Amino acid sequence: MIFVLGGFWLHPVSFFLTGFVIIIGAQYEYYTMIRGGNFVPQIIPGTITGISLYTVSTLVASGLVPSRYFLFLIPFGFLIFVIELFRRQEKPFDSIAHTFLAVVYIALPFSLFPFMAYSREGLGSLLPHGNIVFSPAIVVGFFLLLWANDTGAYILGVTLGKHRLMERISPKKSWEGFLGGLLVSLLVAWLLSGWLGVVSRNKWLAISLLISVSGTLGDLAESMLKRSAGVKDSGNVMPGHGGFLDRFDSTVISFPLVYLFITLFG
After folding, report:
1. Total domain count for the chain?
2. 159 to 145, 152, 155, 176, 215: CA distances (angstroms)
């Protein structure tokens, strides 16, 4: 995860490439898991649609193209329906639904990242990037708070966890772990808010609360997905730690809410 943080922090180009790789890896893992459940999503068209959404979002957020360029994504959705007509699958609309769900579940949240980085001032990138107004502060702060929450939840969950949070979905998660993660996340937000900038300390504290709640729900949602697919991990790109989707299950649920909060109140 240090490489992920470094990628988003280093430079606008590495920022884009980091999100690009994550989307490809996570969508591929989603489609692979779903295929194991006897569904046949369109892996290549779905992945192309996802990375196209992310690419257009980056171009629009950076001011290189106007927002009407999002209209170019409409043919991608149309094409997925056309392709399905010729695939002769037993349940074609199940295939279409899962193809689009990966775009909404994975690519859309990461496509919000550029809008939280361009045209904002705060923590600067590690390398200079010319006259572009760009700050990865919100994305960097988001991951730091998310990891603080995960660390606190793990430590208190292991040492004090007795009351299960949702045993049916994730037997190891406890209320004690959730509260531990929340407290550690709040502490880190209070300590780092001045360094990160962009929004006030109180808003960073609110963001940490939002991350703790929604990040836990995102983790549970992916656990539910894996149980439905009958797999332990979404992939094995990181031996012992699972795959892309295992690492970013909290992100895809919590970051859209952080984006909404900052857009409305930031």
Report:
1. 1
2. 21, 11, 6, 9, 21
d(CA 171, CA 159): 15
Three-state helix/strand/coil letters over 9-51 = HHCHHHHHHHHHHHHHHHHHHHHHHHHHCCCCCCHHHHHHHHH
Query: Which amino acid appears at position 12 of this protein?
Result: P
Q: What is the pTM of this model?
A: 0.91
- Other beta carbons less than 10 A from residue 131's beta carbon: 5
**DSSP calls for 105-160:** IIIHHHHTTGGGTBT--SSPPSS--TT--B--HHHHHHHHHHHHHHHHHHHHHHHH
Kindly tell me the burial class for residue 241, based on how many C-beta atoms sit within 10 Å of its own C-beta (0-12, 13-18, 19 or more): exposed
| Domain boundaries, position 143 | 2-265
* Per-residue pLDDT, 198: 79
Tokens representing 80 are: 């997925």
CB 209 within 8 A of CB 186: yes
pLDDT tens, residue by residue, 126-140: 888 878 889 999 999
